[in-house]
Target: Serine/threonine-protein phosphatase 4 regulatory subunit 3
Amino acid sequence: MTDTRRRVKVYTLNEDRQWDDRGTGHVSSAYVERLKGMSLLVRAESDGSLLLESKINPNTAYQKQQDTLIVWSEAENYDLALSFQEKAGCDEIWEKICQVQGKDPSVDITQELIDESEEERFDDMSSPGLELPPCELSRLEEVAELVASSLPSPLRREKLSLALENEGYIRKLLELFRVCEDLENREGLHHLYDIIKGIFLLNRTALFEVMFSEECIMDVIGCLEFDPSLPQPRRHREFLTTTARFKEVIPISDPELRQKIHQTYRVQYIQDMVLPTPSVFEENMLSTLHSFIFFNKVEIVGMLQDDEKFLTELFAQLTDEATDDDKRHELVNFLKEFCAFSQTLQPQNRDAFFKTLSNMGILPALEVILGMDDVQVRGAATDIFSYLVEYNPSMVREFVMQESQQNDDDILLINLIIEHMICDTDPELGGAVQLMGLLRTLVDPENMLATANKTEKTEFLSFFYKHCMHVLSAPLLANTTEEKPSKDDFQTCQLLALIVELLTFCVEHHTYHIKNYIINKDILRRVLVLTASQHAFLALCALRFMRKIIGLKDEFYNRYIMRNFLFEPVVKAFLNNGSRYNLINSAVIEMFEYVRVEDVKSLTAHIIENYWKALEDVDYVQTFKGLKLRYEQQRERQDNPKLDSMRSILRNHRFRRDARTLEDEEEMWFNTDEEDLEDGEAVVPPSDKMKSDEDLMDPISKFMERKKLKDSEEKEVLSGKASLSGRQSPSFKLSFSSSPKPSLSSPPTASLHPGSPGSPSSPGTGARSSPPTAAVTTKGGLVGLVDYPDDDEEDEDEEDADSKEESPPLSKKSKLSS
Model:
């Protein structure tokens, strides 16, 4: 068997910075003549083919991660990784690599240690800096090697950075670039590419400030066009100077601000398009570049925010009817990008930013823009609105409530949002989904403020249901006037599903506001029309809406459902779905199961009384039979409240009797030996005999009779004993409630006369005159007194007790038999 310690997976890093699995095999290290050195070899475990052959280069930086991973870069943008099955195997290969490179295996990165003595290191630290070769065309290769050799060591990186900074070396290199480009010196241009890329990886802000200055940045981009790995140079400068154009929607008078905007755009372009994808070891080396862009954006937002003249002009032109469409489109896009930049701000600065925009009138401006016909302009305005809602929904709510006092409902900002959602022309309703999310945020009570002076929740919800809810529900009401949706195409159904989902959210969070609206507008009946849709996702939305209402267990809702027979469309959808096992089937069954488990009495009675015939044949789940049982138990309790109270006593595991009776009972229990019990004698105090006979013996004796019916041998015994009463009925086998109980048919000696053994007035007398049948049954009753039933047994007892109300009490039966 192959050693699992050496079992590895080989990975390579693709252009999207994702690791691709190249196969599983077994790794070894051996001298490869062709490569002239020790190499790592991985052979596939499936067919023995060579997955990897990599020479252990003395200058390559290998890194060990998480005890089972070794990562390294083979060449430009070609990163490899070996993932070991066992730590021991990883440690063995790591020792081989360190042995070749002359490193200590205890380190995790082989090239971080500098092989120099303490004295040399002290000399290096005390020396003024690194000496750079003269900046000449013939020395470019030497400079490139110096930069590459300095990158692995933090100390050497620091020295190189200081040398480049102090000697103005970058500007000299860029002058050489212009010379090489004029001479078409391709080798020199390739060296300059490596040098400039290495300078980026030094991660120094001071160097970036030189490279990104107005006079240097285009030459830096030019150097990065000549990648040695590409056959032809890229044309980044051509794109930046001819294709990309800076548009000033509002003239920017501050030259510093203009220069900062240009610089940020170009640096962002370098990061995203010009620089090659950083390898595993280079990602952290560009952190300063990310920070440079970030702080530039913060500066731009701050400078624009402080320029009141600029912002005033911006909003004036946005809302001016005379502004042409192209200009307005540019203005809105600028404002959108302006808000996007603000997301980089710290919370305190972002507060000030949005407060400035609010003071400048951004919400009235958005209201004007959203009322325009241009789809692109409206889309950009929606994005701006989303920034505002996510930042501060209370600010938007306050504005909307204030404008409702001055404007008609049709032109309110929220109603414009709802109308755009309803009229979204996108087949996938991408815009409508975004707008519905914003509405949901605005009507969510969780982010509403409650202060001592006012309650935002009460005020806003009252406003919303008065001025906006009719606009939101209009498509639903228009499409559900018949028994089926009048329009059932995919786009309409998607829109209705979004509306119903928002209504479901309101049911959960808005209590009485939505309750009044649903009941007054008969919304639930309209929503349930959607269960007849051919699109299952819409039918399920409707079922979720009703399930959320039922889940509240609110009797107002329940009475509304029963009064309008609103389970009918649900039952129809269930029956039309047939025997298919799908989400609709499960959703409907879960709804009825919830009613059963939670014992919602009013709905249980309504369902059984109106829909039982349609549902009684569904036997692959016990939900509907369980509902029927619940219903029968309810009826039983209503008709016989005494039984219900007795059951509650049993459930509480105690009988309330006086101390004297308890003592008598205990004395009888201990005075009676087991043989008496086996002979079938009852151990029940006479003082409680009538109570136990009347309340407990009846259902238990019925249970015993059911057991006898199922046993064929016992049938003969029963038929023989039936002569005791002479009243065996043919309906005995169909209904326990209509048959007499042999155990309760006593001989004349059991008739109740004052002072007789069965009379309550005779304390301490044993019931030895009962026939054997009664004795057995009474013994069963004794178990009932000691072994209290759990919840499941209570249900069974309740089912058995259905006929108690139809059976005469014990005293009457005794008199009849006498």
